[in-house]
Design brief:
The complex is a heterodimer of chains A (about 325) and B (about 325). With about 325 residues, chain A is mainly α. Chain A contains 14 helices and 2 strands. Helix content of chain A is about 75%, strand content about 0%. With about 325 residues, chain B is an alpha/beta fold. Classes of the chains: A mainly alpha (about 325), B alpha/beta (about 325).
Chain lengths: ~325, ~325
Amino acid sequence: MSAAPTVRHIPDRLDKALTSILLSWESLLVLVAVAIFIANSLASPYFLDAYALSDLTFNFAEKALIALAMALLIISGEIDLSVAATMALTSTLMGFAAQFGVGTFGLVIIGIAVGLACGVFNGFLVTGLGLPSIVVTIGTMSLFRGVSFIILGDQAYKGYPESFAFFGQGYVWGVISFEFALFLVAAVIYWFLLHRTNFGRRIFAIGNNQVTAQFSGVRVKRIKFILFCLTGLMAGIASILLTSRLGSTRPSIAQGYELEAITMVVLGGVSILGGAGSIIGVVLAAFIMGLVTFGLGLLNVPGIVMSIFIGLLLIIIIALPILWRRFGWLIKA
Amino acid sequence: MKLSRRLMMAAALSTALFAGNAYAANVKIALVVKSLGNGFFDAAAKGAEKAAKELGDVDVIYTGPTKATAEAQIEVINTLIAQKVDAIAISANDGDALVPVLKKAMERGITVISWDSGVAAAGRQMHLNPSDTGLIGETIIKLAADYLPDGGEVAILSAASTATNQNAWIEAAKKILPEKFPKIKLVATVYGDDDSAKSTDEAKGLLKTYPNLKAIIAPTTVGVVAAAQVVTDAGLIGKVNVTGLALPSEFKKFIDNGSSQAVALWNPIDLGYSAIYLAHDIAVKKMEAKPGAKLSIGSVGEVTLDDTNSAAMAPPFTFDKKNIEEFSKIY
């Protein structure tokens, strides 16, 4: 590295450079996931077990479902911090309905409707009134959970119908849980939506330059509104799963889920400033988070050490591509 | 300091675990707590290790989440199921939400008991109460009332609003108030979530809202320290008495400085010790946990299961100026 490069290489296609960066990001995540998988198998004799791997999926499926919609929202340059509170409110209202003998089908409808309604509310405040999403959703985060606390206090709703347990505890085929299957299906849908439709292109356009997008004929507000609705909807669905898995509702349900979902999104390579990211990255990040926490759990690593580890992992994975962009030419030269 | 102690403990435990793997026949009992980094549970883990040493064929896995939530505890239980432990002895963050996952554990042949903070009957084979709910409820009020001959306003600073045990004690305390302590007026119950910062804020709020407050009762080891610190900082020593359930080693300075007259607690070392004995009784000796059954808890004695398969270990124990010095060295 003694001779400084005298001629700077100028790429002839910017497009390609961008794709290769994205590609390398995802390959990096695959590499990390594979490495963690192998490390887990070596470190614990209990890891490579169909039941263990199946149980593992319960640890991240709900958060990952939210992360899918959150990824789109963050790519468009907005954020929703109220998703965990949306889950709490959804769960509380489902529990309330269950007390009056509403059946499983009715509960699912309520879950989806309440989640969607929370999303509509956020979307209206952000796009209708033009308020910043971070402020709005910090507010609704307290509002939605506050309502749950008012309804439930220190009580719990129990007595969900037997068949309701399927969503969070059931298996669709062998050891493949319903939660995991639903996540895979949703991931394919969101992948298609973001990467294969005009709607998806417009999300990127908005995230990169909202004003340009607006002048290019993209209906910015409408698309953002839809994204808030989708995020609320996914939170509603996640709430159905979690409520079913716990078989009960307390107002403190799903506490901290919003940060874990956002962590998955960021770890997945979505730019927190908007405009870049992929669903494959988010899916890989969800797996990585699940594998790391479960793997460390199998070794009985205390949770405190686990948080440190995940924090470090996040910083390293985020820092690597930036360092690569900044200092990569040194290695190439 | 605390973190380094934790890390050393984790290292010691994992070495113990790996050493244990050499003798595959050892019984693996997981002591699952509400959250790590809590002195009370660290003391329970000491008791658990003592029981393991006495029993000889037991490996204790001391574990729990960082956040005191049901969801985080379920993740821990899933990893224990995967490790095929022989028994789980758990202090629950939410007695209902843990039922499905603990049922799954029992279906896979794992003995499940709860201790300290209970799990609903469907999710465990038996529950060990540290003491009797009614007695604890009475004790926490009595601790305040003993130093308020003329009565006055008191407030409760609890853990999370969802904590099974705290809620039961407060319920019992409220029941006993009109009969035995008519002069004591409970003006508020607030929740600090077993979080130092939140408990501090809640305690400050109490002092502001109720200027005539005579005592703060915190039936949680985190809350009681926060409340005593707030009273000390506010210069209200002698005016507001902090009491409740406290770990002697953490609380000694507040008995010494006069912000608290007396606090109580059962012995968490005995509690962890008993939990391991009971899990061992059921998992290894194949003793059946059914109403009326008598189970051994080693040197602590014996417990008898009631109709709900619950048992009480011992009455709470009061610490004041006379004995805090001695007990603060133990836990």
